[in-house]
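We were asked to recover a plausible sequence for a given structure. The inputs and outputs are reproduced exactly as logged, with field labels preserved.

PROBLEM: sequence recovery
POSITIONS: 204
GIVEN STRUCTURE:
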């Protein structure tokens, strides 16, 4: 009688990353993001910059990293407001697709807002105010259907109403764009159908 081969049953974890490994991967993205903004790993890990000696990265819990919030194995919040960040917003930030809150305001970030930021479809709040950003709001932002608040004032961006922005909501407000650093700090209102209009022009 022929001997039949024993069937192999692959564990589920071999086909999809575990929650911990996924968070580890996102942690690597956060590290690269901090470096892109000119910050050290000691800053990211909330360790004194002047402290002597080495540290073991594996022992630094990501939930204790500077301004990082985690939920269900994903990075959901980055709050690096007023942290002396420099450089430009890198395209790879879109790898953190679980982000719901991104606060990079009051820094020295320059360049255009990357199109890839529109891939962060879970974003609810975005603050990029008081930087040196240029260009205009990418049309990819029409994919941000969950976006409720966005601050862009005090940058060097082009003026105009970003009418293509989407998102459901009642009377949600967007800080307006200005043609110069101290101009046009109006607000845009998002109506029920998901469009934004220049609210400040209607009331002035």
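RECOVERED SEQUENCE:
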């Amino acid at each position: 009688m022929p001997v039949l081969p024993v069937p192999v049953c692959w564990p589920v974890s071999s086909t999809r990353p575990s929650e911990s490994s996924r968070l580890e991967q996102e942690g690597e993205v956060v590290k690269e993001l901090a470096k892109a903004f000119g910050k050290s790993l000691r800053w990211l890990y909330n360790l004194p910059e002047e402290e002597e000696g080495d540290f073991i990265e594996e022992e630094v819990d990501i939930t204790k990293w500077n301004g990082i919030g985690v939920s269900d194995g994903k990075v959901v919040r980055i709050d690096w407001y007023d942290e002396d960040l420099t450089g430009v917003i890198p395209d790879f930030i879109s790898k953190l697709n679980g982000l719901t809150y991104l606060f990079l305001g009051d820094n020295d970030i320059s360049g255009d807002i990357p199109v890839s930021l529109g891939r962060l479809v879970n974003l609810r709040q975005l603050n990029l105010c008081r930087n040196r950003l240029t260009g205009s709001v990418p049309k990819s932002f029409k994919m941000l259907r969950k976006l409720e608040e966005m601050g862009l004032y005090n940058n060097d961006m082009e003026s105009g109403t970003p009418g293509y922005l989407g998102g459901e909501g009642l009377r949600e407000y967007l800080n307006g764009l200005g043609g110069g650093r101290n101009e046009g700090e109006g607000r845009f209102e998002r109506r029920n159908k998901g469009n934004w209009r220049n609210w400040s022009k209607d009331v002035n």
